[in-house]
Amino acid sequence: MTESTYRIAGATGDWEVVIGLEVHAQVTSNAKLFSGAATAFGAEPNTQVSLVDAAMPGMLPVPNAECIRQAVRTGMAIDAQINKWSRFDRKNYFYADLPQGYQISQLYHPLVGEGALAIEADEKAGIAEEKTIGIERIHVEQDAGKLMHDQHPTRSYVDLNRSGVALMEIVSRPDMRSPAEAGAYLRKLRAILRYVGSCDGNMEEGSMRADVNVSVRKPGDEFGTRTETKNVNSVRFVMQAIEYEAQRQVDVLEGGGRIVQETRLFNPDTGTTRSMRSKEDAHDYRYFPDPDLLPLELDDAFLEECRASLPELPDAKRARYEGAGVTSYNAAVLTAEVETARWFDALLDAGAKPQQASNWVSSELFGALNRLGKDITESPVSPAHAAELLGLVADGTISGTISKQVFEIMLETGDAPGKIVEEKGLKQTSDTGAIDAAIAKILADNADKVEQYKGGKEALFGFFVGQTMKAMQGKANPQIVNELLKKALG
Amino acid sequence: MTQLTDLTVAEIRDGFRAGDFSAREVATAFNANVAAAKALNAFIVDTPDHALAAADQADKDRTAGTLKPLSGVPIGMKDLFCTNGVQTTAASHMLEGFTPTYESTVSQKLWDAGAGMLGKLNLDQFAMGSSNETSYFGNVISPWRRNDGGNAPLAPGGSSGGSSAAIAARLCPAATGTDTGGSIRQPAAFTGISGIKPTYGRCSRWGIIAFASSLDQAGPMARTVKDCAIMLENMAGFDAKDSTSLDLAVPQWEAGLSPDLKGKKVGIPREYRVEGLDADVARVWDEGIAWLKDAGAEIVEVSLPHSKYALPAYYIIAPAEASSNLARYDGVRYGLRDLPDGANLQDMYAATRAAGFGPEVKRRIIIGTYVLSAGFYDAYYTQAQKVRTLIARDFAKAFESCDVILAPTAPSAAFALGDKTADPLSMYLNDVFAVPASLAGLPAMSVPGGLSKDGLPLGLQIIGPAFDEQAVLNAGLALEQRAGFTARPEQWW
What we know:
The complex is a heterodimer.
Chain A: E1 8-10, E2 13-26, H1 65-77, E3 85-86, E4 89-92, E5 102-105, E6 115-119, E7 131-142, E8 146-148, E9 157-159, E10 166-172, H2 179-196, E11 208-217, E12 227-232, H3 235-254, E13 262-267, E14 272-278, E15 288-289, E16 296-297, H4 300-308, H5 314-323, H6 328-336, H7 338-349, H8 354-372, H9 383-394, H10 400-413, H11 417-424, H12 432-445, H13 447-454, H14 461-471, H15 478-489
Parallel strand pairs in A: 12-13
Antiparallel strand pairs in A: 1-2, 2-10, 2-11, 3-16, 4-5, 4-15, 6-7, 7-10, 8-9, 11-12, 13-14
Helix pairs in contact in A: 1-4, 2-3, 5-6, 6-7, 7-9, 9-10, 12-14, 12-15, 14-15
Chain B: H1 9-18, H2 23-36, E1 43-46, H3 48-64, E2 74-78, H4 105-112, E3 116-121, H5 161-168, E4 174-179, H6 185-191, E5 194-197, E6 217-222, H7 225-233, E7 265-269, H8 279-294, E8 298-302, H9 310-325, H10 345-356, H11 359-372, H12 377-398, E9 404-408, H13 424-428, H14 435-440, E10 444-451, E11 457-463, H15 469-483
Parallel strand pairs in B: 2-3, 7-8, 7-9
Antiparallel strand pairs in B: 1-3, 4-6, 5-6, 5-10, 9-11, 10-11
């Protein structure tokens, strides 16, 4: 593996950036981790709250099997060790958005152990070749509620809708060396979560957010002291936070200062980070095993079900597409988002040929969707109709040129391509008589060019093809036009 | 005619079924006793209407032929159980005025079985105490007095001191208790009644205000072993809302009662016969041994070598869990809120918790916070958990050579109120015989064994293997039949 060449140029030489990410991903589940309360986003404040979430006296947590299942499936998707025995711990601290006065988490015995994911080479982003990023662990824990400071001049309000919602904390190794690598890691992780269906990956709604650990060092040195920038909620912001924070650290160190281990906050408006609290006033969380909960023990049947329910994951899907003749670039594009991959698979299932289909999707379909401002789940053309369209081209019923016209009509009307071709009379003709007649007229009208062609200016062949197609209103079979033209031009 | 309030649970149930009296007569009689016993301070809230409503329903059910297991029986409810629509305080200022909108699983089971509620019983604040003196609502006074002619008010034990005093004074035939480190057994011993802490997980903890989750266990208190069996059958059972609940069928303990101990072995733990053991306690223990021998049991000596570490381990684990369990009382959502002028969130926490918790609760929160702190965790909490494992192993080994263990319940008879409040350690020592079974999660009960030279009740404790409440109850029954304990406090209140 070649190391990243991303460097920050300082007065004392080049600096290398070391990055680790702790991603909090909200588990897709209808109910919270321990309470059975609903988890709808955007509901009225305090309407998704059970007695357990509000930490009423005498209330007890009961683990939600679906949340555990999703975390296990996620672990399997990153080839991680699944711990058949894990345990919940309490992380104790006081805050108004934390009704119990502790968060139920997993410090000592997480559900998922060591795993890894691969980020693809990306020349433009300075990632020379595929790189494996280690994942230390995934544990499940409760989310906190939300404080609202804008409802009253002197008081804060508390919304407990999120209180108790299940999160996966996915902790990477400090294996990333550039903002681009961190961005690629986040995008890949998000893609996997969405393939697995364990998190919707919606960063704007807060379903996925990252704590960004950054340190700098001279290449080859030991790790430097790191800072942790909390709760950054987009890929772009994560990259910005790293850039800013790494530069800040270099400036501090080169100015003769020292980096203090601390928690920092990212300001998306300015792209900067600022200190939130230093290690000295860090909480003593007094972790200990939650006595309300028994250790979590998973049996083989449960694990087998989790494994069997995993979909084909991005890397495997990509390899399959490439194996079927799809270019490496197209395969990467088609597998980056689960919805795109699903759409493309449906297209293949409907009989489209992978190579032709992949070219068509990445040029025609993406172009049209882009123009219409729609994403693939909103495509006016279904995979079945698209497959039919590609089939009409493949079997010579219509030409490539005509297919673009048909596609435009499909986008507008949603009609099946066969019907459009029929109604508009767009079928390609292989009627040699008609083509020959058209050719004879064109050659007669352009005697000078025929002379030139025969004199060796073979590039004019394209001109004759174009004229013939034009005369045939684009409906002539290009292969036959070619053959007949060659014959006529002798 | 016998007064209705002198009847046991079984006698009330059977007499009511036989048509000897109505449920309303029973409830009315107990309501009157409750109302007349304010001097004992056993109840925080009286609920005569609840008792009457349940009684009227029982009378209807009797006519309709749809009787339930506890139809006609009114009981007392320790004020640690959340009761829907009835103030639930854990005897704290923090929860004064707190009215749950939900019913604890155990109390719901009792109401479903036809029982009625006479009131919410006083206790040590958040169940932390051995004398009932930590209650925010004033201490319960034991109905018992020494035979020395003095009228020194005595402790009813704790934390279920309201329950023990009320039963001994015939304010209710039975009550719920909870036992974290002896809170059912010690007060039962102090007041001459019976009480059983079942195996950890038998009774759901859902809706019981938590003290130390890994130790807390509900159980019944009553005047007879049979009554305890009847009550426990209607309190126990798997509850999906409590992850630590035992997924086992509830045995028919009442039907299984047998005082015949032929073929059974009773273990006497060598380490419990400590130097300086109170002479009365030692005498009653020896009598207990003789009674069980008389019931057909073989007496064997057993060893519980780690017993001496039980109390220190308990006073690390229980406060550690409590310090976390009580964090939710922060003034934000319910209960007391003390918001001084200009206070921020931290100030509100500090003011609320300073005002809402009593000194003993604060002491345990501080101990618990300390033992969980970075740098101390391994030395205290981890070490205490290891001790706990060793203690459980001691019992498991002992039960290879015996069926139940017989020991004293408490190291002395009831002490005077105020005697031990200045010295928390001497108070904690009261739990020395009770705590090991709690740490091991084992069923254990106290039955009256006799009187001290001061005329005060002394309890005998039977500890059984996990899930074998029947063995405990049977040995308790054998003791009860031979002890012939008929003493009762003279009514002075």
